[in-house]
Amino acid sequence: MERKSIGDVVVLWLWFLSLATINIEFSLSDGTSDVICSARERRALQRIKQGLVDQGNYLSSWTHEACCSWKGIGCDNITRHVVKINLSCEPMEGASLGGDISTSLLDLNHLQYLDLSWNSFEGLQIPEFLGSLTGLRYLNLSNAGLTGDVPRQLGKQSSLQYLDIGGISLDTENLDWISSLSVLEVLDMSWVDLNKASNWPQAMNTLHSLSVLILSDCGLDSINPLPVVNFSSLTVLDLSENQFVSPTFDWFSSLGSLASLDLSSNNFHGPIPTTLCNLTALRSLHLFNNSFTSTIPDCLSHLTSLESIDFLSNNFNGILPVSIRNLTSLVAVDLSNNALEGEIPRSLGEHCNLQRLDLSSNKLVKGLEFLDLGADEVSGHFSKCLSVLSDGNSSSSGPTSVSVRGSSSLSYLDMSGNSLKGIVSGKHFANLTRLKYLHASSNSFTLQVGSDWNPPFQLEILKMGYWQLGPLFPAWLQTQKDQMDLDISRVSIKDDILSWFWSLNLDYINLADNRIYGTVPSLPTAYQIYLCSNKFTGPLPRISSKTFSLDLSHNSFNGSLSPILCQQNNEENILWSLDLSGNILSGELPDCWASWTLLMVLRSQNNILTGHLPSSMGSLLQLRSLHLHNNSLSGTLPPSMKGCKSLSFVDLSENEFSGSIPMWVGKNLSYGSCPTIKLIYWEYSYGILSR
């Protein structure tokens, strides 16, 4: 379910458009008023709370009498009855709910909306009693950790308009119960094992009101014929990530309202069935990651409403059809990783709605006019309206000059992963006033601009790794004010870091493999920071609690680890990877590890650290890899580290430890994923533990 990259805006728009057709409208307080629900319903809610495990204190508001103002509860403002329960815990909201789903839900006779998605009811089956909630119009149990068979009793919910039970551990062998959901408009059964439910087309065909059907990654391998199609109001159909082989879509031609079709990541082969050319309402067509062959059919030009095409990673060959000029509504096109050849049709330049085009990894020939890559073996005329162009990993070779012109609407430029060479100057960027994403890493361009160059763009992502930007630190970065990801690794900078750099609004920083020198007073609130293999000096800097990966290795930082580890934060530290290796850090390891409980990887080898391992290292329960070799550490492993059962690699070699290896070490490391673990160079002898 990862590859939904192109046309996501289109798909989401279709999704919400479909949801908008569902007439689930309440006059709700929804947690914003002091409306008091009935005592009977309040007691039912309290019993529901008692059955739940609420480690994140999500239900802390469920105390006072005004239960209609409780978090997740919605009441009818007129009748005061509880009609809505939304206890969905989205992944970014923190700890999810667990425990049991209480039968006290049956005491909420007026309940119409129930959302328990994104929770952790691990090992729990979908309760059969939910089928008795016959007033429900909306039920979402997706990603809630539920397992086992989907109960047939759900078919009793005859008022249900929205049903989402997507979950990787659910299965069902028969879908006959679906036919009772006569007013169902949205059905999402993603990841439910339907391999034995061969009657799925017949079951869905009974749902005359169905508008959205999502059966992604359900183990389906056949599409049975339908003599008569009754669910012709379908607008969104997602059958991606299944095991279909033969592209027999005879009854698809009856889906006259279909706007979004996703058949990606299956095993389809052969030509695209011409049946699809009858779906004239289509706006989004996803066929990526299949084995379709032959040419792209001319009849697709009949689909004049198409906004998004994604045919990535198939075996399409031949030339791009000239008839593509009829698809004037196109916004996003991905034809990459096929065997297309010839020239890019000039008609493609007439598509002023086109914002993203990816033709990489084909056999197209000659040189682009819009983005002139010279020997890139791609040719054609490109629209001045184009805002995304990707030519990464194409068949470029040899020295290449770059000219980007006539492209004032360009917002996304990706030419990464080539072996392009040449001089790039400020004039090449002169028209790129709307550029937001520049991904040009893994090329050999040389940027030649003056110290006073003021780029016309404000970037959100800048990746120029392996360019020649040095030897001076690029002063023009100071002009970038937007929140940005920055990668200027291995760009031959041999200069002092400029003080203003640390004030930039950066989410991601990669300055690795240069020869940048100077001190680092404090680090930005970036999530990932890579300053490794430079010439930085001075004490270790303070870091933000928002940083989860920090690499300061192979510099000349000196002094104690205390500044970075013993700083006082009011927020939880999320750091999971810390690399301080290859510096000249000294002193004892500070006893401050209790603040870094999420740390998984610690590298501080090749320094001059002394003293014992502190007992607070036992707080690192998530620690998997510990590298402290080639220091002057002494003593023994602290008993507190017995709790570090996630450890799979420990290297304390070339230190001054003494005594015997504790017995618990072997037991703990047996939990690791490595069958053989180099543990310790202990008293100048290697200790090897094997499972």
From TrEMBL:
Leucine-rich repeat-containing N-terminal plant-type domain location: 40-76
GO-annotated molecular function: kinase activity
Membrane association type: Single-pass type I membrane protein
PANTHER family: LRR RECEPTOR-LIKE KINASE, RECEPTOR LIKE PROTEIN 30-LIKE
Homology family: Belongs to the RLP family.
Pfam short name (any one): LRR_1
Subcellular location: Cell membrane
InterPro entries: Leu-rich_rpt, Leu-rich_rpt_typical-subtyp, LRR_dom_sf, LRR_N_plant-typ, RLP23-like
Superkingdom of source: Eukaryota
First and last residue of the signal peptide: 1-20
Swiss-Prot/TrEMBL keywords: Cell membrane, Glycoprotein, Kinase, Leucine-rich repeat, Membrane, Receptor, Repeat, Signal, Transferase, Transmembrane, Transmembrane helix
Name of the molecule in the record: Leucine-rich repeat receptor-like serine/threonine-protein kinase
GO cellular component: plasma membrane
Primary site of residence: membrane
